């Protein structure tokens, strides 16, 4: 438990941080509550989406917007889960990781590292294919197919909702949950290395796509390391934002033009 004299001191943005402290913030029941809450949220979203897709006559682009919107609410629930747990532990935002990093240059290194992982994995898949081995479902991407719309206004609405989901909400919600909660919980209970490995694997599984399981798990490990090294959630959030923004622009440009 955090001493009371620190609870409201420098609540949001204290002095710049250089690395995470070894203090254990979360415990086993916090981790299980967070994971259970995420699964329940997914079950609710899925139970809403399936009847809509099967019983309501909607254009593909309209159904996509509904899916994006439900995904936004699901991911926002990650943030509320962590805030709820933090309030129970008398933790403030700076304890969770909302601290200014000492040096923003690490973001550049992490972005390059993430793309290096994606490139190397792509080359490995091509090498495996070239020797006659079928990589199966492990060959694929996480790119979203842009649905055709009937007007400029519909296209604008489609792109706007997609941008909110991918560029704004996902980097914040996923980093708060996977790095701020899962990594810190496992790292505190066992070791930072195990925290990086397990939170990275869960991050890869979270995307429900075998084609990106390996590279996204490695990226999750790298982002956890960036969080540990910088002591700031803003670092992995910024890396996540840059990567998702580039992917979003490529997806939209490729889908429209």
Describe the model:
The protein is mainly alpha-helical and about 260 residues long. The protein has one domain. It has eight helices and no strands. Helix 7 packs antiparallel against helix 8. The longest helix is centred in the middle third of the chain and has 38 residues, at about 150-190. The protein is globular. The N and C termini lie far apart (about 55 Å).
Which labels suit this protein?
257 residues; mainly alpha; globular; disordered N terminus
What's the alpha carbon Rg, rounded to whole Å? 19 Å
Show unreliable segments. 1-14
* Tally of distinct domains: 1
Major sheet: none
Mean pLDDT: 89
Share of β-strand residues? under 5%
Element order, helices and strands?
HHHHHHHH
Q: Tell me, briefly, the overall form.
A: globular
Count of helical stretches? 8
Give a brief description:
The chain has eight helices and no strands. It has helices at 28-55, 60-88, 93-96, 105-130, 152-189, 192-206, 210-230, 234-256.
Please write out the topology.
Blueprint: H1 28-55, H2 60-88, H3 93-96, H4 105-130, H5 152-189, H6 192-206, H7 210-230, H8 234-256
Helix pairs in contact: 1-2, 1-5, 2-5, 4-7, 4-8, 5-6, 5-8, 6-7, 7-8
């Amino acid at each position: 438990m955090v001493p009371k004299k620190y609870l409201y001191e420098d609540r949001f943005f204290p002095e710049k941080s250089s690395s995470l402290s070894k203090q254990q913030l979360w415990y086993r029941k916090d981790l299980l509550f967070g994971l259970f809450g995420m699964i329940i949220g997914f079950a609710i979203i899925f139970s809403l989406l399936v009847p809509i897709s099967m019983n309501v006559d909607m254009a593909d682009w309209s159904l996509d917007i509904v899916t994006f919107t439900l995904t936004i609410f699901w991911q926002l629930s990650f943030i509320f889960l962590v805030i709820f747990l933090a309030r129970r532990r008398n933790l403030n935002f700076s304890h969770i990781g909302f601290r200014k990093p000492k040096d923003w240059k690490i973001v550049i290194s992490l972005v390059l590292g993430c793309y290096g992982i994606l490139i190397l994995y792509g080359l490995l898949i091509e090498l495996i294919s070239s020797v006659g081995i079928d990589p199966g479902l492990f060959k694929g991407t996480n790119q979203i197919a842009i649905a055709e719309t009937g007007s400029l206004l519909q296209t604008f609405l489609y792109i706007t909702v997609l941008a909110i989901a991918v560029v704004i909400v996902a980097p914040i919600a996923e980093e708060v949950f996977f790095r701020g909660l899962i990594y810190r919980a496992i790292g505190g209970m066992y070791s930072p290395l195990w925290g990086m490995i397990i939170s990275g694997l869960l991050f890869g599984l979270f995307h429900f796509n075998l084609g990106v399981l390996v590279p996204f798990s490695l990226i999750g490990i790298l982002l956890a390391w960036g969080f540990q090294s910088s002591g700031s959630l803003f670092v992995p959030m910024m890396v996540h934002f840059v990567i998702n923004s580039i992917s979003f622009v490529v997806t939209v440009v490729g889908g429209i033009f």
